[in-house]
Amino acid sequence: MSRELEPYQLIEQSISKRFRKTIWSPFVAAVKRYELIQAGDKIAVCISGGKDSMLMAKLMQMLQRFSEVPFDLVYLVMDPGYNKLNRQKIESNAALLHIPITVFETNIFEVANNTDHSPCYLCAKMRRGHLYAKAKELGCNKIALGHHFSDVIETTVMAMFYGSQCQAMIPKLHSRNFEGMELIRPLYCVHEDDILAWKRYNDLEFIQCACRFTENCTACDNGGGGSKRQEVKTLIRRLKRDNPNIEKSIFQSIHAVCVDTFPGYKQNGIEHSFLENYDQHEIRKEAHNEIY
């Protein structure tokens, strides 16, 4: 007689079977393609309590179990000042998924909510800083965040439409303020729609708006109804009706940037103009014609 599976085992089974093509394989592909994990890494998997970070934690846990590359994980939950219900929801979901979380307290919401100047920017900056600091204290050399494929696409479009720049979200980056620390994004190739499908299939409920400014909203699974990001989500959804591959095109475009066609670009914080090397191009062209 076969043994009945525990809920967390059924959830894992759904990832390895039903959602293998849409979640597990893209996750593993991103880890390999962008070289996100190396032998000996100790990674702080940062859990906010939402669907993305919770799925990421489970995927990292499964990868550690099956991978031939040895690495350690810490499942890090920073409490920036959650209300009681949100805190309990995170803890109960972690228990359900069999994820052994490490929780630490901060007063980020209190500080950010008492400023009149860009509270969202301050909150995000403080959260990142606290996560890096705690991860380093625990002996980690990397933190993993739950940004997914759809975040990458939306960020690229938002930068063009509202930031007047061509800027993308890269799969990993070195910390400027915490030496030896690196940020990785294991869900880089996983679509948000597939995360939502996994969540619904397993009848899971995660916290949505933990922010004190938006606790009462109902349509802000990824950070705020009425926000610029929500506008871009809606726009992309409309464009997909006529071009189902539009997200794929945007994603591929940030992997094939033709700098030679841009009148200006920025590298390492320094602005450059195409005029810097414009005449050199003509010289090389003339030399090429002389040879052939």
Mean pLDDT, all residues: 88
Per the principal axes of the C-alpha atoms, what is the gross shape? globular
Summed up, the helix count is: 11
Helix content: 40-55%
* Alpha-carbon distance between the two ends: 78 Å
Strand order of the largest sheet: 3-2-1-4-6-5
Main sheet attributes: strand count, strand direction, barrel closure: 6 strands, mixed
Per DSSP E runs of 2 or more residues, the count of β-strands stands at 8
Order of helices and strands: HHEHEHEHHEHEEHHHEEH
Radius of gyration, whole Å: 22 Å
- Beta-sheet strand percentage? 5-15%
- Which secondary-structure class do the elements indicate? alpha/beta
Residue ranges: pLDDT <50 for 5 or more in a row? 214-225
Question: Can you walk through the features of this model?
Answer:
This protein is α/β, with parallel strands linked by helices and 292 residues long. The chain is 48% helix and 12% strand. The protein contains 11 helices and 8 strands. β7 (264-267) and β8 form a beta hairpin. α7 (149-163) packs across α9 (228-242).
What is the topological layout?
Blueprint: H1 7-16, H2 20-33, E1 42-46, H3 51-66, E2 72-79, H4 84-96, E3 101-105, H5 108-112, H6 119-137, E4 142-144, H7 149-163, E5 172-174, E6 182-184, H8 192-201, H9 228-242, H10 246-253, E7 264-267, E8 270-273, H11 278-291
Parallel strand pairs: 1-2, 1-4, 2-3, 4-6
Antiparallel strand pairs: 5-6, 7-8
